[in-house]
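Collaborator request, handled under Task 6.
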Amino acid sequence: MSTPITGRAWAVLFVLCGAIFLEGIDVSMMGVAMPSIRAELGLSTGELQWIVSAYALSYGGFVLLGGRAADLLGRRRMFVGWLVVFLLFSGLGGFATEGWVLILARFVTGIAAAFMTPAGLSIITTTYPEGPQRNKALLVYAGTAAGGFSLGMVTGGLLTTIDWRWVFFAPVLISAVILAAAITLIPRDSERPKTTGGFDLPGAFTLTGAMLLLVATVVRAPDVAVLQTLLTAAAGTALLAAFIAIERRTSTPLIRLGLLRNSSLVRANLGAILLVGGFVGFQFITVLYLQELRGWSEWKTGLALMVIGIDSVLAPTLTPWLVNRFGNQRVVLGGFILAVAAYLAFLPLGTTFAAMLPTFLLLGLGFALAYGPLTIAATDRVAEDEQGLASGVLTTSFQFGAALGLAVVAAVLAAADELTIDAFRNGLLVPLIAAVAGVAVAAGGLRVPVRNQMAAQG
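Structure tokens returned to the collaborator:
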């Protein structure tokens, strides 16, 4: 019989769930508010996508370093300290009068999330004993994150109706409450952390720089000369090569390259890039289409997109049963097939909510089926002492996928003279192609015989 979670342990979990709820609501509120931000600050479509991409790239580029910092410098210290940074730069975004200030604020906010989130998750895994207690805590934590993302779509619409700046100021208020509770409730770190070693700062900076340059290459391709596109692509590739060289030589790498011999992990990360890239690109197109071409209000757009939030109900209920019944790879494949059907159903670009509802329902169901099982696949047959590393690599893939999907969609829309039906329909081909590629990746996993693919140590 398992020991029940104590009242104080529940209070600590409430604080940590507040932080992951803050992250989820922050991202989804931003998506609904982007047309209003564009209108006031005079941003182009390419500049507009950087509001989300800057956050995603800095988050994905530094999250592995964030997990290492929590182990070395103290989990509470990292959680509280970077929550303060998150609060301050969210406020800066609300006061921005220039696009570059807003993008800079989002970039630093992403760095703060990259250090804060793994610290919070590791507090859970070290506070609650392995078994029923920890599983319950993690399920509550994951459900809160999904709920924050869904609620953020509606909240973002309502706040933007007042003023888009409240999309930034609301997280400041939530952060302040969480900060006060964290200082009071989360136990102090021990003076001497058990983990030893150092930081791979060159690896973190070269990885983030490579992702930034590669995404910038895609975004700016329609507006600059071919030579400039080739130069930025070459620079991004060179930084990526430098990152690999650094990881081979350093004694404390961000990513042990031998881990990539695990084909299940590689497929899961490719699937993550395609799933999230398509999903975020679709949300970007849909928000612009509904608000700028169809004249929908922010709150109406948020309410419509909230249907996709059905995944927060299905993920912890239906998905585990399907995985037990049909296996992980088949459920992932089913999720991508539903995503293909969803994007195909949206291609006619209907004008009523009833016409769009099948897409939102199919996409919510498809995301619920693919997201969790991809997380399982990314840590399948990975050694116990590298589970955290594998999870961090997956987080990086999710964030890079979001930025890359947005970049490609923004480039396709920017290539059009104006945002017409045809331009939006061309943009929709991007998530559709990503979902079709996801089907191919997932189907490839079914053909691989089950064998121990654990990467060799060393």
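The cover message to the collaborator said: "Residues 423 and 443 are 31 Å apart (CA to CA). Residues 449-458 have pLDDT under 50 and may be disordered. Please let us know whether this matches your experimental observations."
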